[in-house]
TrEMBL record:
Record's keyword terms, sorted: Signal
This protein's record includes keyword Cell membrane: no
Region forming the signal peptide: 1-18
Domain of life per record: Eukaryota
Taxonomic path: Eukaryota, Fungi, Dikarya, Ascomycota, Pezizomycotina
Family classification: Belongs to the cycloisomerase 2 family.
Gene Ontology terms for molecular function: 6-phosphogluconolactonase activity
Source species of the chain: Lithohypha guttulata
Protein name: 6-phosphogluconolactonase
Keyword check for Signal: yes
Annotated Pfam families: Lactonase
Length: 399
């Protein structure tokens, strides 16, 4: 192949590209959207709705490698939640496989597994529990799951009575070595730490990370500055606190003999950096950018910005997305708060290249895709948006 042919192929790839998003909404649908780009102009089009995840889908977990999508239904109007699994088809449609009734109020789910290929999924239940399920197949085969175990928490609640009346597990994340599961508990100001049984994948509680009283930890993200994961590798944990509106950095070290983790507080900052939010901020999601250099946080209720609406006829009250640069000692340097172009960015996801970020706006019933400068880490401007019926709860890329 000659050089000019290579260039024309590259131009061709740049001129038209497509990827997909899956979006969950509390109105009851999981929507598949196609994002296409041609000569720098993007469009975002809903192509399929799945209705099987029940009335209040709260979270989507994509297993892109095996073409499976898991959805938890918070079951707001009922005393139980549910877990649904789907096979992802080439055209972005979803084939429903199974529903299982779960404990009340699942709000997050994470895949994990053991070295021999046994796989499972952990659910965090806002209604004071975690539960685990094993997957029927290690690979793309059977998308079914079986119930494995559950634990209900009763620890004494935190000081903010209206939000901390009981334990409220909000997420489950694996540490970079894949050995421990961490569960931020908004109701009791701790990040619960578990190891897991390599046979049935049930979780065993270890010592927790205790946050400031009234912090309300919601979600967390790990960072390995050198991009390598091992027990002796430098590792940090960033926790976004929904009630105090802060982000806390911890240095993580591994205890000997699989005895758990130690945490050393390195930095605590306002989730909006040095900006003063007009209203009380209730930050939501936190993640490290794909280039491993920046931390992104969704700010809700802050109403820091007034960007123009779609036809530029008026301005809208907008919450924001914060970007911090990650320093080698674990501390954070505020870089930017960018308008989210709407209200309550409950969840966001960056694409693999890190040049696009999709934001799910819970109260605006919209998904907005922004372009992002991978060198500076700055979110630049909205490039596409789609209206989604109801309150948007999560948005994931399927590339
Ligand atoms: C999905 O549902 C919405 C209503 O919320 C509807 O406007 C849209 O046409 C549906 N999309 C498809 C592809 O069926
Ligand atoms: C449904 O909820 C009830 C009440 O919380 C609980 O006892 C039961 O175990 C739940 N069912 C399942 C299948 O988790
Ligand atoms: C980590 O380092 C310690 C000494 O600093 C060593 O004893 C231990 O074997 C190392 N652990 C691993 C998993 O490499
Ligand atoms: C939003 O901000 C207002 C004004 O500060 C406050 O009264 C309200 O409690 C905040 N909502 C949340 C969910 O934090
Ligand atoms: C959900 O999707 C179905 C099928 O496309 C559609 O008929 C319905 O209007 C959608 N409901 C909402 C609330 O978006
Ligand atoms: C899961 O099963 C499908 C049909 O197989 C139903 O349509 C859904 O309503 C059901 N979902 C829940 C949460 O029960």
């Amino acid at each position: 192949m000659n050089f000019s042919r290579l260039i024309s192929l590259a131009l061709c790839a740049a001129a038209a590209s497509a990827s997909r998003l899956f979006v969950s909404s509390y109105a009851g649908n999981v929507t598949s959207l196609a994002l296409t780009e041609k000569d720098g102009a993007y469009s975002l089009t809903p192509t399929y709705n799945a209705t099987e995840c029940g009335t209040s889908p709260s979270w989507l977990t994509l297993d892109a490698t095996n073409g499976l999508l898991f959805c938890v239904n918070e079951g707001m109007a009922t005393s139980n939640g549910s877990l649904s699994s789907f096979r992802v088809n080439q055209d972005g449609s979803l084939s429903h496989v199974q529903n299982l009734t779960t404990l009340a109020g699942p709000v997050h789910a994470t895949l994990y597994g053991n070295p021999s290929g046994r796989r499972g999924i952990v659910l965090a239940h806002y209604g004071s529990a975690i539960s685990t399920y094993t997957l029927k197949a290690a690979g793309p085969g059977d998308a079914g799951v079986d119930f494995s175990s559950s634990q209900t928490f009763t620890a004494s609640p935190g000081p903010v009575a209206d939000r901390q009346n009981a334990p409220h597990p909000h997420q489950a994340i694996l540490d970079p070595t894949g050995k421990y599961m961490l569960v931020p508990d908004l109701g009791t100001d701790q990040i619960r730490v578990f190891s897991y049984n390599s046979d049935n994948l049930a979780l065993n509680p270890l010592d927790s990370l205790v946050t400031d009283p009234g912090a309300g930890p919601r979600h967390a993200a790990f960072w390995t500055p050198n991009g390598v994961s091992c027990e002796n590798c430098t590792t940090f944990l960033y926790v976004v606190n929904e009630i105090s509106g802060t982000v806390a950095s911890y240095k993580v070290s591994y205890r000997e003999n699989n005895a758990g983790l130690r945490f050393e507080l390195k930095d605590t900052q306002n989730a909006l950096g040095h900006l003063v939010s007009p209203q009380r901020n209730a930050p939501s999601e936190i993640s490290v950018s794909p280039d491993n250099r920046f931390l992104l946080i969704g700010n809700r209720n802050d109403t820091t910005f007034n960007p123009p609406n779609k036809d530029k006829s008026a301005t809208i009250k907008s919450d924001s997305i914060s970007t911090f640069a990650l320093n080698g000692d674990g501390s954070l340097m505020f870089v930017q708060a960018a308008p989210a172009y709407g209200s309550y960015p409950r969840h966001f996801s960056t694409n693999k290249a890190g040049n696009l970020i999709a934001v799910g706006l819970q109260k605006s019933s919209e998904v907005v895709v922004f372009n992002r400068d991978v060198v500076t880490g700055l979110i630049v401007k909205p490039v596409a948006m789609a209206r989604i019926e109801g309150e948007v709860s999560s948005v994931v890329w399927n590339e």
